[in-house]
Each structure stands twice: as structure tokens, then as C-alpha cells.
Write a structure and sequence with these properties.
This protein is an alpha/beta fold. It contains 11 helices and 8 strands. Helix 2 packs across helix 3 and helix 4 packs antiparallel against helix 8.
Length: about 270
């Protein structure tokens, strides 16, 4: 896995494909570059894009950052990575925590963007989301993968997905207990704290790049009505609503998710 040093930290990234246009995926708070492995052949081989994934500082295989910080710290890290790789224009997709970074990036560096795609996003952290973050932090403080999974995952997946995939989820619970480390949990708590007061609702009207929102009808973390607040404020933005999907719509309904993403990008291809 290649790494590059930017702004005093080592960032892990993966760059696949050799298409003329680049799609960047920004992780949700509990994710890393490996979380998107199933998307690689779809984006690079079947649709001929270059596909860039990265782990933010304190995430995945990037450097831990053992001081508290604000979610916006990742924005300049992303810009420096793009500059290091010589990538001048991208289709930027950010999920949940990654969507926060993506929106700030769109405000700060719009010249880098062909499109902005925001699945399962909020522009303002609600009281409910703050409470959910508290639960994630409390469960992470136990340093138990089993406890963390039991308390965190019901917020992420829809009830329908839970009921259909119970055995798979129990296997994931065991895996979490085996592989998650104290360092991971400490990083997760810092990442969670970094977005607790996130609120750019009154700024996003300044985003002018073509924007797509993707919502799930069973998402309680970033519900449809919160995402509509974003759509109302970003002029010309579009929204796709995926029926029956929770906060992890990209996993639960991958085909619908990819169709929405690639369809929108196709409308705004640079070449």
C-alpha cells in the first residue's frame, strides 16, 4: 500500500485504473481504503476510471494523530495528496464523515472538482448524531470489538439489512473482536470528536459544482429530511433516494448506489 507524507503525516492511499478521469472516495468514520475493494473492478475495469482511495490521518493505515483536531484538517491533506499525484481534477465522493470533508473541500478548492457526490451526508451535526457519536466513543473506550460492534452497528445498517444478514453480522462481530486494537479505538474517538460541532449549513450555498446527494429511506443517522436541507441550499443539486437502505447504502444496495454515481458522473464527463 503506497504512502505519501503530507503536512507532517503519512497518508495511505490506493490508486487503481488508468482512465483519463479520476474518482475519489472519502471514507466514513469507521472505514478504510479496503472498505471499497468491491468497487475497484466496477470503476476501473468495467467503466475505465482512475479510482483513488485514501485513509485520513488517524484512520486505517495512515499515521495516527494523537492530538484533538477539527474535521477540516483533512481538507488540505487531500489537496496535498492530489498535488503530489499530479491529479488536477476529480469527481469527489464522500460518505458520512467523508462527506463533511468533501463539502469543505468544495468550498475551499472548487477548482479541483468536476462533480461532488454526497451519500448519507449532513451539513449540520444534529443532537441525535451527537448522541450516536457519544455511544461510539463510549463503546470504543472499552477497547472491545464485540462491545463496539453491538452498540454501533445498529445505527449503521437498516433494520431490513440486519434481519436478512444476521449470520454475516455475527461473523463480523467476531472479526471486530479479533482485529480491532486499542490504537484503532483511540483514533476512532479522536475522529468522532473532530466532527461533533460540524455545522456548515449556512455556507454550502456557495458550492457551485454539480452535486448529487444519495439518501437511504432507512437511514437514521443522516435521514432524508436532513439531506434535503443540503439539496435546498446547493443550487441545481440532485438527489437519489434508495428505498430500504440505511446509513451504509453503498453496501446494502451496491448496484443502485453505483448506478446513481456513474450515471451522474457520465452527465459531467470532462473528456
Amino acid at each position: 500500500m503506497p504512502k505519501v507524507e503530507v503536512n507532517g503525516v503519512e497518508l495511505n492511499y490506493s490508486l487503481d485504473g488508468n482512465g483519463e478521469e479520476t474518482i475519489v472516495f472519502l471514507n466514513g468514520i469507521m472505514m478504510n481504503t479496503l472498505s471499497w475493494n468491491e468497487f475497484v473492478p466496477v470503476l476501473t475495469e468495467q467503466n475505465n476510471y482512475q479510482f483513488l482511495r485514501l485513509d485520513f490521518r488517524d484512520m486505517g493505515f495512515s499515521s495516527p494523530y494523537k492530538e484533538d483536531y477539527d474535521v477540516s484538517i483533512h481538507v488540505d491533506d487531500l489537496k496535498e495528496l492530489l498535488d503530489e499525484l499530479g491529479i488536477k481534477k476529480v469527481h469527489l465522493l464522500g460518505v458520512s464523515y467523508g462527506a463533511m470533508v468533501a463539502m469543505i473541500f468544495a468550498l475551499r478548492y472548487p477548482e479541483y472538482l468536476s462533480t461532488l457526490i454526497l451519500p448519507n451526508a449532513v451539513a449540520q451535526v444534529t443532537r441525535f448524531l451527537q448522541a450516536a457519536s457519544d455511544i461510539w466513543e463510549y463503546s470504543a473506550a472499552t477497547n472491545s470489538g464485540e462491545v463496539f460492534f453491538k452498540l454501533s452497528m445498529p445505527f449503521i445498517y437498516s433494520d431490513e439489512f440486519y434481519n436478512r444478514n444476521w449470520e454475516w453480522l455475527k461473523e463480523r462481530e467476531v472479526l471486530f473482536d479479533q482485529i480491532l486494537t486499542k490504537e484503532y479505538f483511540e483514533s476512532l474517538q479522536r475522529l468522532s470528536r473532530s466532527s461533533k460541532n460540524f455545522d456548515i449549513l449556512d455556507q454550502i450555498h456557495a458550492i457551485k459544482v454539480p452535486t448529487l446527494l444519495i439518501a437511504g429511506t432507512r437511514d437514521i443517522i443522516t435521514p432524508v429530511y436532513e439531506m434535503k436541507k443540503i439539496q435546498e441550499r446547493i443550487e441545481g443539486s440532485k438527489m437519489v433516494i434508495i428505498e430500504g437502505a440505511g446509513h451504509a447504502s453503498f453496501y446494502e444496495k451496491m448496484d443502485e448506489f453505483v448506478t446513481a454515481v456513474l450515471g451522474f458522473i457520465a452527465l459531467h464527463k470532462v473528456v
